[in-house]
Amino acid sequence: MFGELNMKGWIRQLLRINLTTKEATAEAYSKDLALQFVGGRGFAAKTLWDEVPRGTDPLSPSNKFIAAVGPLSGLSMPNVGKTVVASKSPLTGIYGDGNLGSHFGSQLRRSGYDFVVVEGKAKEPSYVLIEDSDVSILDAGQLWGIGAFEAEQKLEDKHGKSVGTLMIGQGGENLVKYAVVRSMMGRAGGRPGMGTVMGSKNLKALVAKGSKTPEIADLQAFRQLGRDGFKDIREKPGYDNWMTQGTMLVHSWCQEFSVLPSYNFKEGQFEHADALSGETMEQLKVKTRGCPSCTMQCGHCIQDSEGQSAELDYENVALLGSNIGMRDLREVATLNRLADEYGLDTISLGNTIGFAMEASEKGMLDEKLDWGDFQATKQLVSDIAFRRGSLGPDLAEGTRHFARKLGKDAMDFAMQVKGLEVSGYDCHAAPGMALAFGVCSIGAHHKESWIITYEVDVGRETYDESKVDKVIELQRIRGGMFEQLVGCRFPWIEVGFDLEWYPKYFAAATGLKWTLDDFWNVADRVYALVRSYAVRESNGEWDRSMDQPPAKWFKEPLSCGPLTGSKLDKDGFEKMLSWYYQKRGWDERGIPTKKRLVDQGLDWIIPELEEVTKLQ
Fold it and tell me: Which of 182, 361, 599, 610 could connect to 148 by a Cys-Cys bridge, CB 3.0–4.6 Å?
């Protein structure tokens, strides 16, 4: 199928670091791993299945933290300055990952590795320095307890501006369940608690600085493709418009089409939306920032309410803005900057605070927490990061945990799936997007299948197979190819950079003549493996209830805007969910069938799966 293997592009070495024994070893990995899983998410999922036994406590030394890249990482082409970080999630209990822009991936490759596996736990706060084959586990005592921005600056001052870093803030140190990994003074990834896992290992940071050049199959062709790709993106008709606001372009669109989360997803419109819009941000903007090799920077910075520079994008403005009733963009920017310094996921943070505000409104809390109360919210962000105060410790555990503790009907307005909080799109009148949230492999995240714009175009009232097909198509692209090659989706999504570029880059790097269908096959294999991982960890309790979006969207209709009265139809959603399972080759519980696992080359996981559930 793939032709003669020319193992260029891949370095075919992983770095294993044991923090308990303070040992670091380079290990060769097989060509089959490269061909079947490509890189990034694929490498991470396969490693976690093989090496983290069923039932492992995510915060124990037995869990593993993985940082992985792909065969295009660090090469001269558009928007491949990304690194996947993955582990068994302390927030959801299943596979978790995310990607973030960082020089770490390219420097790791220049050091001679495609991915790093961190295991064990350091006795004292530590950080890892990777310099080619020289790996050191160093004291992080002076870094522990300080924010991610300050820690990164200290590491760069000590090891040089060219290093690549992955680090945590105080949220990760204090084991907030949705702590993320940080880099480059603004990049973040790993929503399901990847920063928490680092903190559980007493690992403040990973630092990489390499001197080697990855070997590729056709350097001359790759260089030309790289130049042509950069030029093509910058000449796209929508490029200049994108550069004005980045992801904040979608804010006004969400308000117009009633999908802007407001008051803990009670509504899809916000009465003060104009004050938080991309246009308002553009007027206040002081600079723009982006990832390595980025052609279309998405990090737009304004001066926040405390006079400091803060980076904004749509998700954090939606969840720390309208979703909690905030109406001043500078104050939203302050909350976002604090979250970035503490290393907290802004999506989960805005959700947990929104949940607490609604619980307070319903009289379910002793504490009074009003919508839009900036000072109280600012204090609560700090309390969560340091697990203090009356609400901080519970909210640090995530929305699902707190809802279960409160009991009564609290789960009905807990905006999460599988324990991961919903990102910034209300779905009262968007069944396709609700399905995408429900079946996302890591919980309620938009990154794998952002179907909302398609759904608005084709009609949001329908519950039909075409939307199911679109969810799967986008999962193969966004959660599949881009997560395995480890590149940014924005050039394709936002300005129409053709997907056919990627097989060309892949061929020049590896020598393999793959088609997009070959990448989709890998994507489906990884999706089945990640789903099977979740089933394995459920200890026989997995069923289709795991793929349900929040009950609020079914029970509480919108009460304002042009879609007043809209809510999801349960029968229609269940029909779409069954179609999704059928098209994936999964049974009515949402579990891959034996036949599909065999067809996808995953027959080797069947025995362990059958220890926890009966496969069909």
Answer: 182
Interatomic CA distance for residues 285 and 371, integer angstroms? 26
Consecutive H or E run containing 159: helix 148-159
What are the start and end residues of each CATH 3.60.9.10 domain in the chain?
Answer: 13-208
Dump strand ranges (E) for 132-272.
134-139, 164-167, 181-183, 187-189, 203-208
397 CB contacts (<8 Å, ≥6 apart)? 177
Tell me which residue of 190, 163, 167 sits closest to 90, measured CA to CA. Answer: 190
- State residue 479's pLDDT score: 95
Cβ proximity of 542 and 495 under 8 Å? no
The single residue listed with the structure tokens 């570029």 is 501
Partner residues linked to 596 by β-bridges: none
User: What's residue 7's pLDDT?
Assistant: 73
Classified by CATH at the fold level, domain 243-424 comes out as 1.10.569
Query: What is the pLDDT confidence band of residue 6, given thresholds at 50, 70 and 90?
Result: low
Asked if residue 129 lies in contact with residue 136, where contact means CB atoms within 8 angstroms, the answer is yes
Cα 258 from Cα 273, distance rounded (Å)? 11
pLDDT value at 217 more than 80: yes
pLDDT at position 2 over 50: no
Degrees, nearest 5: CA angle 218-222-227: 155
Closest to 207 in 3D by CA, of 156, 172, 169, 173: 156
Give percent above pLDDT 90 in the chain.
92
Quickly tell me which residue has 């990994």 as its tokens.
181
pLDDT digits (tens, 9 = 90+) for 320-329: 999 999 999 9
Q: Is 398 left (phi over 0), alpha (psi -120 to 50) or beta?
A: left
> pLDDT category, 78, cuts 50, 70, 90?
confident
Q: Which of 548, 561, 537, 506 is nearest to 266 (CA)?
A: 561
Q: Which has the closest alpha carbon to 80: 445, 497, 514, 446?
A: 497
Q: What CATH number does the domain located at 426-496+515-616 have? A: 1.10.599.10
pLDDT (tens digit, 9 = 90+) per residue, 283-303? Answer: 999 988 878 877 888 888 999
40 and 485 Cβ atoms separated by less than 8 Å: yes
The pLDDT of residue 198 is 98
Angle at 542 between CA 536 and CA 547, to 5 degrees: 115
pTM for this prediction: 0.97
The tens digit of pLDDT for each residue in 580-591 reads 999 999 999 999
- β-pair partners for 285: 302
Query: Contact, 542 vs 534, CB < 8 A?
Result: yes
Q: Where in the chain is the domain with CATH 1.10.599.10?
A: 426-496+515-616
Parts of the chain belonging to CATH 1.10.569.10: 243-424
Read off the pLDDT of residues 420-439 as tens digits, 9 standing for 90 and up: 999 999 999 999 999 999 99
CATH of region 13-208, choose from 3.60.9.10, 3.30.980.10, 1.10.10.10, 3.20.20.450 = 3.60.9.10
Question: ∠282-423-390 over CA atoms, to 5°?
Answer: 100
Closest CA to 262 of 415, 389, 153: 415
pLDDT(443) > 50? yes
| CB 69, CB 508: distance < 8 Å | no
